[in-house]
Amino acid sequence: MQITLGRRPLTIDEVVAVARHDATVVIDAEALAAMAATRAIVEGLADDVEPHYGISTGFGALATTHIPVEKRAELQRSLVRSHAASSGPEVEREVVRGTMLLRLQTLTTARTGARPIVAETYAAVLNAGLTPIVGEYGSLGCSGDLAPLAHCALAVMGEGTVRDARGALMPAAQALAAAGIEPVALREKEGLALINGTDGMLGMLALALTDLDRLVATADLAAGLSVEALLGTDRPFAADLLALRAHPGQATSAEDLRRVLSGSAVVASHRPGDDGTHDCTRVQDAYSLRCAPQVHGAVRDTMAHAAAVANRELASAIDNPVVTLDGRVESNGSFLGAPLGYVLDFLAIAVADLASMSERRTDRFLDASRSQGLPPFLAHDPGVDSGHMIAQYTQAGIVGELKRLAVPASVDSIPSSAMHEDHVAMGWSAARKLRRAIDGLTRVVAIELLTAARGLDLRCAALGVASAPATAAVVAALREHVDGPGPDRYLAPEIEHAVRLTDDGTLLAAARAVTEIR
After folding, report:
1. Can you tell me which residues the record assigns to a coiled coil (predicted)?
2. Contact 424, 144 (CB under 8 A)
């Protein structure tokens, strides 16, 4: 796959294609020409006696310090070297690639004043599969993701450390030489242009939205299995009932549940008939079953809002100062990550609640007083066997962690740069904790699927009827890796199989092969 930069804004899917799947990037010739034109404006100011931020001055609290002409190239190199100050565990390859891609996209808007060769070198580094080493900590999400972006710029200068396409750690100069890439010697404003953006947090938002798109559909699927196996009803999911409260997300999730449960002999076995047969004594199901569309749908609507913010950012040119269309070089505050920090935190809240409801459905399977006749803990021989008792403990531990991760980062401003940067956004921190939250959600939903599949096997055997085609397909896909009900087995590997099949979309694909799930 090849992605062309400069013609139009990138899409979320394109960001993921480059960051996660190594799609090739090329730069549109018109974008390179536009970059050359705005670079001429910057160079025209290089010898100006009037101060211009990032061209002839220091940075941050040092913005009033005049830099002599002969030291302005050194100024850019020093900026990158000093700001490449991250610490902690190595950031994931896909995050670094997404960060570099999005900084490159801003360069191709021709609003930064960087030379075309800088953009071309970034594209070459991405296409060669070289990944600068970036540490977990170093961005306050204001003045951009400074430290992460500085590490990327440092590598393009031929300094610092990178991983090559095979993952081998090596000096950047060696990796660039092996790939036939000439290091960039930065000139006026270019160091600043390479570090002053919200690219890290935006890249992580794009990746998170892609993962959540799969996970919320899988959560709908898991809820369907649970409703069926716990002898719940599909009647609250009727389209006319959902239309009374016109949130689009809940209508989508309810439609998913109707499709997942369509054709279920288990649901039909206790559905009241016109003649009063199969009359169910329960008036209504518990909230974790009946209200699944409301919670899952609210997550979908939160994702839609976050995607709207992401798409606005993808259509933006974020730098400080910027070169305007009429040739001015103006300072601004577009680098502040508040719009991204807020939605990243909002998604972490939604993830925690989605996982919490999933765990509650799992717990119903294990309590004989609420499972509608299933054995305690779904155990083969209760007392001798513990069944899925501790799988729910694992879920509960993860959900507890997700609630802690839902505490917003974006309200925790810590002033920096001698109080010049006296309010910061913490969007990078919000993005980092959302990544951990998504991993936790994947595990929680996987355990629900594992437990619901076991419960559904037991229920179908007890009733002597078949489950819905969609749920049967999911159970069959899971049974290729995990055995059905029986005496206690080593449970951790079975959980990990379920996690993998949830994460890679195998179980969702099995259902989608039978019915349409959004």
Report:
1. none
2. no
Contact 5, 27 (CB under 8 A): yes
241 vs 492: CA distance, rounded Å:
41
**Beta pairing partners, 416:** 421
Domain match, 180 and 309 both: no
pTM of the model: 0.95
Question: Taking the CB of residue 101, how many other CB atoms lie within 10 A of it?
Answer: 26
The one-letter amino acid at 56: S
Q: For residue 503, give its domain range.
A: 205-272+282-512
The tokens for 197 are: 């953006």
Tell me how far apart the alpha carbons of residues 92 and 263 are, in angstroms, rounded to a whole number: 43
CA angle 90–91–94, rounded 5-degree value: 135
Please tell me whether residues 288 and 348 are part of one structural domain: yes
Q: Does a structural domain hold residue 371?
A: yes
- Kindly state whether residue 375 falls inside one of the protein's structural domains: yes
- Does 173 share its domain with 311? no
User: What pLDDT, on the 0 to 100 scale, is given for residue 387?
Assistant: 97
Catalogue the active-site residues.
Answer: 53
Structure tokens at 361: 């459905």
Structure tokens at 77: 């190199």
Higher-pLDDT residue of 155 and 322 is 155
Please say whether the beta carbons of 157 and 202 come within 8 A.
Answer: no
DSSP string, 394-423: HHHHHHHHHHHHTS-STT----BTTTTB--
> Which element (helix H / strand E) includes 148?
helix 146-156
For residues 146 and 149, what is the distance between their CA atoms, to the nearest angstrom? 5
The two three-digit tokens of residue 73, written as one number: 């190239």
Integer Cα distance of 429 and 497 in angstroms: 30
CA angle 238, 243, 244 (to 5 degrees): 110
Distances (CA, A) of 243 to 154, 236, 250, 502: 54, 12, 9, 30
User: Is residue 427, in this structure, part of any structural domain at all?
Assistant: yes
Assigned domain for 231 exists:
yes
Q: List, in sequence order, every beta strand (DSSP E) within 48-203.
A: 87-90, 131-132, 135-137, 161-163, 169-171
CA–CA separation, 453 vs 450, rounded Å? 5
Cα gap 162→160, rounded to integer Å: 7
Which pLDDT tens digit goes with each residue over 202-212? 999 999 999 99
CA distance 296 to 237: 12
- Region at 110 (left for phi over 0; alpha for psi -120 to 50; beta for the rest): left
Collect all residues with Cβ–Cβ distance below 8 Å to 371 and sequence separation of at least 6: 230, 364, 365, 455
